[in-house]
Design goal:
With 195 residues, the protein is mostly helical. The chain has helices spanning 3-16, 49-60, 75-94, 102-109, 113-134, 136-140, 145-156, 167-173, 181-192; strands at 20-23, 31-34, 39-42. Strands 1-3-2 form a 3-stranded mixed sheet, with helices on one face. Helix 1 (3-16) runs parallel beside helix 2, helix 2 (49-60) packs across helix 3 and helix 3 packs across helix 5 (113-134).
Length: 195
């Protein structure tokens, strides 16, 4: 989903809450909502998907007294920023995006990079820990040389040219313990002929 498509989608979501939406090229800020009067006004030139998502979160949470624009210490503003990134990430993933394309996510949504990175990275790390916990018993299971060979053959089949191999990334991809590093390294050397 491109930037314009995402903007249109988010604006339709705002309208679903019964809000009247007005675009104004001369509007001095990117976007603002009045939850009491159910009105949203945005600058058709300055607005970003992140800012529309931010305002949508205010609508969802029925925030009516938020303080000044971009008041980062206001709890409602901080929550709207956080939840807007999560909402945009959910849309991104639903459209085939993942953590490997984080820069595409930031470029498309124009979310603040550092904030988005901390929120998404933390979520990704928590998910990775949960997956590791789920597969903990499987990770501890011993693996034979043929299984390692099969994993490595599968792994290298994704590449046209291999200049270097990050064995830790390989092990993580197949949910294998880092204890298998030496075994994997030997098998890579054999298969790639780098003995």
């Amino acid at each position: 989903m491109g930037r314009q498509e995402l903007l249109e989608y988010l604006l339709k979501e705002v309208e679903k809450f019964g809000f009247s939406v007005f675009a104004d090229e001369m509007f001095p800020i990117p976007a603002i909502v009045n939850t009491d009067d159910k009105i949203m006004i945005y600058s058709s030139i300055e607005v970003t998907p992140f800012e529309i998502a931010h305002e949508l979160i205010h609508i969802i949470n029925k925030d009516s007294h938020r303080g000044k624009y971009f008041d980062a210490i206001n709890p409602q503003e901080a929550r709207a920023n956080h939840e807007a990134i999560l909402l945009l990430w959910e849309i991104f993933e639903a459209n085939g995006g993942n953590y490997e394309y984080f820069n595409v996510f930031v470029n498309t949504t124009e979310a603040p990079f550092e904030l988005a990175e901390s929120i998404i990275k933390n979520g990704y790390l928590e998910m990775h820990e949960a997956i590791t916990e789920i597969f903990e018993d499987e990770i501890k299971v011993s693996i034979n040389k043929q299984q390692m060979h099969d994993y490595i053959v599968d792994y290298i089949s994704y590449f046209d040219v291999i200049e270097t191999v990050n064995i830790y990334q390989f092990l993580d991809r197949y949910h294998l313990s880092h204890n298998f590093y030496n075994m994997a390294e030997k098998e890579f050397r054999l298969l790639l002929g780098t003995n």
